[in-house]
Each structure stands twice: as structure tokens, then as C-alpha cells.
Amino acid sequence: MRMSTKILLLLTLLQNYETQEVNNFLIKITDHPVLMKINGIKNFNLTIPEECKELGFCEHIPNYPYDYVSEIITLLSKANIKLHADVDPREHITQYDVEEINNSEYEDLCSSQLEIIHPQVVRDNNKWYLILNSKTNPQNYVIEKCRGNPSRPERCSGKAYFTPPFYGKCVQKYIERKMFALKPPFYDYLVSIYFPIPSCCSCEVKREYPLADVKTRPNV
């Protein structure tokens, strides 16, 4: 798809607090989630791998429209609109920080891992949005994921004791972060809205069986 110079003109209106409509292209003010109306992609269906459906986001999909997305990123760049980029906290950990962590009196009840992700699609309200990303100018985010299989959450550390019928279960928590994305189903609206991404792994109390069954359970 070739973008016209008229879109460039419209993008400059993002810095003005007004709504303009020119030649069927619509630009809204920056505090509104819809930033730009574009041509969209005809007869396009995202291919979402199964493992991504469990996480709610995907870093690599087989039919990501790189050329289409790259042109939009270029337009945003010319309008001095920057994509989001988190700083990897692991790059700033000193030896002192490592020793402090190892000697800490606190211990995590759930095993987790920090990652930097560059999402290509994110799910929200059962709809998959195309996230603006490229190899040279990506949107990246720091996340913390529970280790193990998302469909089979691990139990909390054995150091956390709960009276039966309760037990500790590691649960993935999410936080909303703002992203530039293309709205389905035609991906013809550029939006800047908040999407849920993994933020931490939390130990929560669960009931293993109904309280009414407590007396029938052995050794309770």
C-alpha cells in the first residue's frame, strides 16, 4: 500500500487539539484513542499460533504485514511520534544488587522470569489487534511471566503452608500498557490504547475441594 502525502499533512494535525476530515481520512486529537483512518488490508486474516492464545499476545505470527506496518511507522516517525520502548532492568543490575538479592530475608513464593517482548499481536476483548512493530523500530515491553505451562499453573513454594482444603497456586497477573495498534477486523484504524500484558506471578489461595467435603477427607 502506498501512502499519499495527504496523510502526512493529516498527521501533523495530531499536535493540534482539533478534529479534521480531508478526503475521507480522519485524524483525531492525541488524547483520543483513534489517531488515524487508513486504507486497511482487504481479505486479511491473522494466523494466531495456539501457544499465543494462552498468553494473550504473540511476538511472531506467520503472516505479519511488515510492509504495511513499516509505512505507518515511518509516517509516525516523520510526525515526531515515537513508539514505546521499555528499558531492560537487567542491564542495570550491579554486583551489589545481586548480593543484596541473595542476602535478602524475602523469598518469592512463585517462580517467574523477566522478559523483553516485542508483540506483533495482542488480544483484547477476544479481538486480536495488530501492534506496530518492526525490526529496526520496535515497541518493546518488560514483562514478568510465571514459569511453566500457562494452562497448568504451578503450586506455590512449599514454604507457604495452608490449612486444607486450601493450597497456594501461582497465578499470572496482568497490567495494562499503552500501545500503537491497528484495530480489527480491517486494520484500518490506528489506535493508541491500553492492552493487558503479564506483570508478575502471584501466589493465591485456592480451595482444593468443597468445604462440605472436609470431614470426609482423611487426615483432616
Summarize the topology:
Elements (H helix, E strand, L loop, with lengths): L4 H7 L8 E3 L2 E3 L6 E4 L12 H6 L1 E2 L7 H13 L16 H8 L9 E6 L3 E4 L2 E5 L9 E6 L19 E17 L6 E19 L13
Antiparallel strand pairs: 1-2, 3-10, 4-6, 5-8, 6-7, 7-9, 9-10
Protein name: Spaetzle domain-containing protein
Organism: Brenthis ino (lesser marbled fritillary)
GO molecular function, one term: Toll binding
- The first-to-last residue Cα distance is 68 Å
Shape: elongated
The H-level CATH homologous superfamily, spelled out, is Cystine-knot cytokines
- By CATH, the architecture is named Ribbon
Determine the number of helices (DSSP H or I, runs of at least 4 residues). Answer: 4
Which structural class is indicated by helix and strand composition? alpha+beta
**Strand-residue proportion:** 25-35%
Characteristic key phrases:
Cystine Knot Cytokines, subunit B, alpha+beta, 15% helix, disordered N terminus, 220 residues
